[in-house]
Structure formats: C-alpha cells, structure tokens
Amino acid sequence: MKIVNMNDGISIKRSIEEGTEEQRQVVLSILEQVKTNGDDAVKTYTKKFDGATLDDLRVTSEEIEQAYGELSDELVAIIQEAASNIKTFHERQRRESWFTTSLDGTLLGQKVTPLDSVGVYVPGGKAAYPSSVLMNVIPATAAGVQRIVMVTPPDSEGKVPAGVLVAANEVGVTEIVKAGGAQAVAALAYGTESISAVDKIVGPGNIFVALAKREVFGIVDIDMIAGPSEIVVLADEQANPAYVAADLLSQAEHDERASAVLVTPSQVLAERVQEQVEKQLAELPRAEIASKSIEDYGVIYVVDNMVAGVEAVNDLAPEHLEIMVDEPMTLLGKIRHAGAIFLGPYSSEPVGDYFAGPNHVLPTNGTARFSSPLSVDDFIKKSSVISYSKEAMKQNGNSIAALAKLEGLGAHARAVELRLEDLK
C-alpha cells in the first residue's frame, strides 16, 4: 500500500463504472424482450445467465420453510436481532403529516404517504447477502410500504440461499421472485403476467443491473447508481495499526475496484499500517481481490496535521469514514461529507454493515457531498395541501392575479379574478 505525502495532492482514485455502449445495448434488448414477452423472457434469460430452468418464478412457502431448516437456530436468532436493531433505528426516521392554520382561515400543510409498492434487488448467484435484504426492506416497511417484491438470482438448481429467504421472511417481504440481472429490473418496472409493476426499485447489482435501473428511471423511481465500495480512515498516532489495516481490507475484499484510504498526520502510523496490510493480506480468503484493490485504489496520505486531515476527508466525501483518534467526538462536527461515520476503535465498519442499525446503503463516488444513506424518506412521498378561505382570497387575490399577469398567464389571473368578482 503506497504512502503519499499530502503536499503531492490528495484524491481517491475512483473506479466509476459507466458501462460500455455494447453493455447498454444488451440491457436495452433485455428490457424490450421482458416488456414484450413477460414471464417467458424472464425465464429465458434466467436459464441463459444463471443456468436455472424455472417452471415458476416465485419462491414458495415450502421453500421458505426449508430455508429455516437449513440454518441453525443461532443464525436465525442473529438475523432477528440484527433486524430488530435496524428496525429500531429506522422507525425514528418516520415523518408525520402536518398542517397549520391562519386567522383568515387558510390551511396549509404536507401530507406524507408511503409508496404503494417497492422492488428490492438482492445480489445472488454464488454469494448470499441477507444483510442487503434487511437494509433495503426495513426502511420500506418502517415507512409503511404494503407491497415489497424481492428479486434475486437463483443458483443453477433454481434455489435461493437460505439466509436470504429467512431474512426476507423475517422483515415482511410479500413476494420473492427467482430472477436477477436486467431482466429482473425490467419485470419490476414494466410488470409481467406473474409480477405486477412496482413504484420504486432499490438495491445493488452488477453493471447490467445498474444500467437497467438507469434506463427505467422515470417509469419507476430508483435509489441510486452505486459505485464500488470505499472507506477512508482518519487516524492519529494512537490508533492501533492492526485495526486500521483490518478495516481497510474489509472494504478492499469487496471488489477489485473498491478503494481503501488512510489519512493520518503520523508517518510512523502510516508505515505500521502499510506493514500490517501486507501481513494481513496473506491471511485473507479473498486475498486476490483485496490485493488488486489495494494495489490499484489503496493509498495512505500523510498530512501536516489533523486540521488538514479533516479537510482532506471533506474533499474525499467517502462512503464510509472511520475516525480513530483519541477524542473522535471533537472532530465529528467538522465532518461535512461522509455517508456513514464510525467513531472510535471499536466501531469497525462491519458493525454498521450488519448489526448496529444505521443503513449500509450509502452514497459512493463522492456523492456524499449531496446525498444520504437509504432511509425511510426514500419510501415516502409528500403532497402539499392548500385550503384558502373567502377571506384569504379577498386579501390575497389581487396579488396572485398580478403575479400571473407578470408572467403573461392571463387564464391564471382570470381564474382568481372571477372569484374576486363574486366576492364583491
């Protein structure tokens, strides 16, 4: 892991996967086929890409029951406890409708309504991600969404990992579909014979999923186009180099394109972390992936002081930020841009990924400058409410008409003036 002095410039070398035109054309073809041929197209692509021949796209209650039998009671209890923590956190984000009245009889307000239906994409195939189920579904249920459709690619035998099914059942997923890729996104956006269209699609996926979500945006809403994972650790000389290295590698093992960055004013810590990264890499099951990530996107920046370190962090606007200094709370108020902030030596990033409660669906590629983690707000919509009384119309009608005329909209002005004439 290379060490770079702050004076040489600081930036995350980001891997922003935009997709090629060839990939986009593949996605457009899949979307059109599913839009035209429905379930048959979804099954055909599932056979082509996942090797699974499916008679029915839906997971049955028997399959869910079998999934519970495949997990130990301890693991089921851990999933339930994690779900409880995440639910408690997200229920505090709920918004209420509000209204205000004036002496002239005007009533103004905001009506908060949950979305009717949401599609949740959960990556699958060779891997299982029950945490993705919990993090994407729980804020939707906390918001009051009644219909939640989960799509996830099956293995070649047409099975979905037991942990994913158990997590989905625990948090109230109403429909589970054995399909992934662009074809699943298309099914959620357009609907098929067996899958009714949804209002919003959330959840991570590969480049084809990302491109498909981008193409259907506008027909449905989406959460974000997520890039590779990233972590920045801001640490002083008192930080444990083994902890820092382990946390950097926890992100590096995600993807060859993930970025792991240490920002520190301590040259000694920088060198010790560099040594620890090399030592721990050799012991990782996913060493090949993590090594490539560290080689291409890993860096240790040595800054002049902690003030410069905070400034660097705000410039980087990382997805995950760990602050490992003697008094991390003293720096919290100075951090303006970060998706999630982990304070102190025992708040390792996996604590947030799996168990603590805050959402792990976070803005990447520097978008923490203007966006936020997935939350209850992503699953509600707000309607403005306006009720004018006769007195309010008498008092404000001429001003409204004048503004309409200023914009050259005579019919707007006339709509108000007619009422004013009747009120004379």
TrEMBL record:
GO biological process: L-histidine biosynthetic process
Gene Ontology cellular component list: cytosol
Amino-acid positions noted as binding substrate in the UniProt annotation, renumbered to this chain: S229, Q251, H254, H320, D353, E407, H412
Molecular function via GO: histidinol dehydrogenase activity; NAD binding; zinc ion binding
Cofactor(s) for this UniProt protein: Zn(2+)
Pathway: Amino-acid biosynthesis; L-histidine biosynthesis; L-histidine from 5-phospho-alpha-D-ribose 1-diphosphate: step 9/9
Active-site residue list: E319 (proton acceptor), H320 (proton acceptor)
Pfam families reported for this sequence: Histidinol_dh
Top-level EC class: oxidoreductase
Keywords, in A-Z order: Amino-acid biosynthesis, Histidine biosynthesis, Metal-binding, NAD, Oxidoreductase, Zinc
Residue numbers binding NAD(+): Y121, Q183, N206
HAMAP family: HisD
Family stated for the protein in its record: Belongs to the histidinol dehydrogenase family.
Name of this chain's protein: Histidinol dehydrogenase
Protein encoded by which gene: hisD
